[in-house]
Amino acid sequence: MNDNMDEKSEKNLLNDLEELKKQKINLKKELEEEEQKFEQMKNESNELKKKYDEQQEIFKKFDPEKLEEIKEMLSKVRAAKQNYRGYKRQCKAIIIEKEKRNDLLRESEPGDLSVIQKEEDEKYAELSTKLIELDHELNEANQNLFKLKCQYDANPSQLEKTQYQKRFVELYNHMSSILREIKGLYNMYNMNIDIRNFTKKEIDLLNNIDDLKDKAVQESYKDSFIKNLETILKSIETSLDKLSTKKEELQKRKYKNDDELQLLVDKQRVYSNALAEFQAECLINQELHGKLKK
Q: 157's torsion region: left (phi>0), alpha (psi -120 to 50) or beta?
């Protein structure tokens, strides 16, 4: 009967051991998957933060003075365009007048015609040079205006910034939940290992007692049996001392984690208040930018 009990106990222990091994493998797989997800989300968070920082740098460049500079540049471009159109009209009028004069001069003497034609060519060359200079100035002004417009359009709106902030908060919360889940898996794995070790020790103790119970009845084996029991008792006490020490360490760690959690909660409260104030200031800033554009 005892042999049957031992076989059943060993069989149960082996089954438990196999089950624990399977759980360990599954936990490792889950842990690797969660770590991959964590790394992926961490990379995504870094990319979003990098884009947000770049947008912030661009936004900082466009202060009210920069907007005034853009307005002045627009005014200069409009003035240059008007001057260009006026000068073209003036040139056309002069060309028409010169053509009329040329028609009249063709009817005059050949000597007078050559002198006047030379003067007209010089004036025409001078006017053409001025026209080219104005055209070049207008093109340069258009290029500067296009660059400033591209930089200004690249600046994100307040809605986009708010979406970035919400996305950062969501990523932070998701990573915190994954971290808590990973810690729980580690704790559960360690607890299963401890349970397995204690179960094995308990079965070994019962097997030893069962093996020695027949001999313990005899007088010659009583002393050795008592010594074995004392040895087993000492090992149990040593294990209990280790467990007590581990329990105290875990208790201290728990108190420390509670203090850190309370500190983080306080910081989160301060952050939420600061974020609300920042969003309010951003809305005011956006309204001021809208007024400046008008």
A: beta
CB 151 within 8 A of CB 58: yes
Is 187 in a helix, a strand, or coil? helix
Residue 26 corresponds to which tokens in the numbers above? 């599954």
Neighbouring residues of 34: CB distance < 8 A, sequence distance ≥ 6? 178, 181, 182, 185
**Residues across the chain:** 294
Q: In a 3-state reduction of DSSP, which class is residue 108?
A: coil
Both structure tokens of 233:
């008792």
pLDDT digits (tens, 9 = 90+) for 23-79: 777 777 777 777 777 777 777 777 777 777 776 666 566 566 665 676 677 677 777
> 154: which DSSP letter?
T
Residues 212 and 225 sit within 8 Å (Cβ to Cβ): yes
Q: How far apart are CA 287 and CA 88, in angstroms?
A: 42
**Two tokens at 189?**
């794995």
Q: Work out the angle at residue 149's Cα, subtended by the Cα atoms of residues 47 and 60, and round it to the nearest 5 degrees.
A: 50
Smallest CA-to-CA distance from 83 within 131, 144, 147, 20 is with: 131
Token digits for 1? 């009967």
Which residue, 136, 148, 157, is CA-closest to 61?
A: 148
Is the CA virtual torsion 253, 29, 26, 14 positive or negative? negative
Query: Do residues 151 and 61 touch, judged by C-beta distance below 8 A?
Result: yes
196, HSE (Cβ side, Cα atoms, 13 Å) = 17
**Which residue is associated with the tokens 């290029």?**
143
> What is the tens place of the pLDDT at every residue in 202-220?
787 777 777 766 666 666 6
Half-sphere exposure of 261 (CA within 13 A, CB side): 8
Nearest to 5 by CA among 205, 203, 216, 202: 203
78-109 pLDDT, tens digit per residue, is 777 777 777 777 777 777 776 776 666 666 55
Distance, CA of 193 to CA of 17 (rounded, Å): 9
